[in-house]
Write a structure and sequence with these properties.
Elements (H helix, E strand, L loop, with lengths): L2 H11 L4 E6 L4 H9 L5 H4 L5 H4 L2 H4 L5 E8 L15 H4 L10 H15 L12 H7 L4 E2 L5 E2 L7 E8 L20 H5 L5 E3 L2 E2 L5 H6 L15 H4 L11 H4 L5 H5 L6 H8 L3 H5 L3 H8 L10 H15 L5 H7 L5 H14 L2 H13 L3 H13 L1
Antiparallel strand pairs: 1-2, 2-5, 3-4, 6-7
Helix pairs in contact: 17-19, 18-19, 19-20, 19-21, 20-21
């Protein structure tokens, strides 16, 4: 059996749904797209992981010859209704960039170990354009919503890859869009119009991006500020957003399938609430937030901010006491967005809370948010 076949069979034995092989040649088209879209993607171009350089693997690893593309189907179990619309499915599945001490991270580590034992040198620290890799390796096609799709599964997949110094047997590329002709369901459904043309996304308008990438200290001038017009359209999404995948006809079969429960998610969902996230304890953070949402956010205040936005968008006066409590949080970011949420809910009680807190607040940004909320009432 050839090394290529051994690699593919081992990957399938580990549970990967698809595995393909492509060359380590430059991803010229992806580089051109990043450069063409300018300010929309400058945060990615300036990312310290050097994604643009990763588009040319042989510059970072001169001996590179092949890339192994792996597809993990993360929709093999059901997702609790209590978490849908709040936490994206890929995060609930705990399979995206999973650490090596968790099951989904250990699977990738086992794959790496196998390839190394087979005599291949493996590239380290190469940030690859995974969707381009997978399509060139023949295991996925593109969707108009900018996601990769695996035949028979849909877009609920996680892509990972391994660069090696060995020339393997290459698969036929599937660099094509597999969507039904004329379908624009994802474009019409996007609340913020982040998908402005087929396969064209403005990430700065994307709900998921605004939920987890808007943090102080990020590249390209990003900060913790989320524009009010985006906040109002985020709904209850606190980490990720699946809207453009939920409306996609290519995902209909999987979304309608009767799948077994994920017992861990069932337990989490029974104890999960937006109010608990807003005023969360260390225990809630460690047992209910981090196990699912470890990917992009490391500071609890950003989760609290997102929870405040979600509660504001629900518009239920029953949440005013929780938001009033958040107005005492030591993090000014939490107080700022709790004030916005109170203004979003409105009513006499919310007004009373805001007026009381205005006289006590010392942070300028929080005061501005209080004033804006009161002005809108």
């Amino acid at each position: 059996m050839s090394l290529t076949k051994k690699i593919k069979e081992f990957a399938l034995d580990l549970g990967y749904s698809r595995v393909g092989i492509t060359t380590a040649d430059r991803f010229s088209d992806h580089v051109a797209i990043l450069q063409d879209r300018g300010p929309m993607y400058d945060f990615l171009v300036q990312d310290p992981r050097r994604p643009v350089e990763g588009c040319e693997p042989q510059k970072l690893m001169p001996s590179a010859k092949s890339i192994i593309s792996l597809v993990w189907d993360y929709s093999q179990k059901a997702f609790p209704e209590a978490l849908l619309g709040k936490v994206g499915r890929v995060y609930q599945a705990r399979s995206y960039n999973a650490p090596s001490h968790r099951i989904n991270g250990s699977r990738y580590q086992l794959m790496l170990d196998f390839v190394k034992k087979a005599g291949c040198q493996v590239g380290q620290g190469i940030f690859l354009p995974e969707r381009w890799v997978a399509a060139r390796a023949g295991v996925t096609t593109y969707g108009r919503n900018n996601f990769a799709y695996a035949d028979g599964i849909g877009s609920f997949i996680v892509l990972s890859s391994i660069v090696v110094d060995t020339e393997l047997e290459y698969d036929t590329p599937t660099l094509e869009t597999g969507c039904p002709e004329g379908c624009r369901a994802c474009i019409k459904a996007c609340p913020t119009q982040a998908i402005y043309e087929p396969q064209k996304l403005n990430p700065r308008r994307c709900i998921a991006f605004n939920a987890w990438f808007t943090q102080d200290g990020k590249p390209a001038g990003l900060s913790s500020h989320i524009p009010p017009e985006i906040r109002e359209k985020m709904g209850t999404h606190v980490h990720g957003c699946d809207i453009c995948q939920e409306v996609c006809p290519r995902n209909r079969e999987r979304l309608q399938a009767k799948l077994p429960d994920d017992e861990f998610l069932v337990r989490v969902s029974q104890d999960f609430s937006l109010t608990k996230m807003l005023n969360m304890t260390d225990e809630f953070y460690e047992t209910r937030v981090q196990p699912l949402m470890y990917n992009y956010i490391k500071e609890p205040k950003y989760f609290q901010r997102n929870a405040a936005i979600a509660l504001g968008n629900l518009g239920d006066p029953a949440f005013i006491p929780d938001l009033e409590l958040a107005m005492n949080d030591p993090e000014k970011l939490v107080r700022e967005y709790a004030a916005w949420a109170l203004g979003r809910i409105g009513g006499n009680l919310a007004k009373q809370v805001l007026e009381t807190k205005r006289s006590l607040e010392t942070c300028g940004n929080v005061k501005k948010e209080i004033e804006a909320a009161l002005l809108a009432l």
